[in-house]
């Protein structure tokens, strides 16, 4: 989880890198903090996207995650079928 303190440290390291440069330890810390931030951002976005529901004009609701999962499963099956046909 990214806290306000983490964001402040990311910004401190950024400004220090522009002003005077960073030590190897600080570069490693900056890289890790940025990776943690990106991971948290992606997890948050994924959670938001998975909770989206779309209402059709007829009033029915579509769960975007379920629709996406079904589409990906169908695509995998088609790719497997194509691979089997090419192998024979």
Task: Tell me what you see in this structure.
- The structure is a single chain.
- The protein is mainly alpha-helical and 88 residues long.
- The chain contains 3 helices and 2 strands.
- A hairpin with a 5-residue loop joins strand 1 and strand 2.
- It is elongated and about 60 Å long.
- The mean pLDDT is 93.
Topology of helices and strands:
Elements: H1 4-19, H2 24-50, E1 53-55, E2 61-63, H3 64-87
Antiparallel strand pairs: 1-2
What is the compact description of this entry?
It contains 3 helices and 2 strands.
> Strand content of the residues, in percent?
5-15%
Gap between N and C termini: 50 Å
Characterize the main sheet: 2 strands, antiparallel
Q: Note the run of SSEs as H and E.
A: HHEEH
Q: Low-confidence parts lasting 5 or more residues at pLDDT below 50?
A: none
State the name of the first-level CATH class. Answer: Mainly Alpha
CATH architecture: Orthogonal Bundle
What radius of gyration results from the CA coordinates?
22 Å
Question: How many domains in all?
Answer: 1
Average pLDDT metric: 93
Strand order of the largest sheet: 1-2
Query: How many strand segments?
Result: 2
Q: How many helices in DSSP terms? A: 3
Can you tell me the CATH topology? Answer: Helix Hairpins
Measured as a percent range, the helix fraction is: over 70%
Shape: elongated
Class derived from helix and strand content: mainly alpha
Which homologous superfamily in CATH is the superfamily? Helix hairpin bin
